[in-house]
């Protein structure tokens, strides 16, 4: 995903699973993501995808 489109607080799907963006490191093109169970991981921005149908606490798509 383009670094300019990634924002803190947005819900994304990453290579490690779905989660909320905690921080964006534009210099290293990395994103810190917090998963649904409060686990955290850093992933390359290229592996992050915004999913407008991803809703926290809900397993259904609209």
TrEMBL record:
This is Uncharacterized protein.
């Amino acid at each position: 995903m383009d670094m300019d489109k990634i924002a803190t607080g947005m819900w994304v799907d990453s290579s490690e699973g779905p989660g909320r963006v905690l921080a964006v490191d534009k210099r290293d093109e990395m994103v810190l993501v917090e998963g649904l169970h409060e686990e955290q991981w850093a992933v390359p921005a290229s592996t992050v995808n915004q999913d407008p149908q991803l809703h926290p606490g809900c397993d259904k798509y609209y």
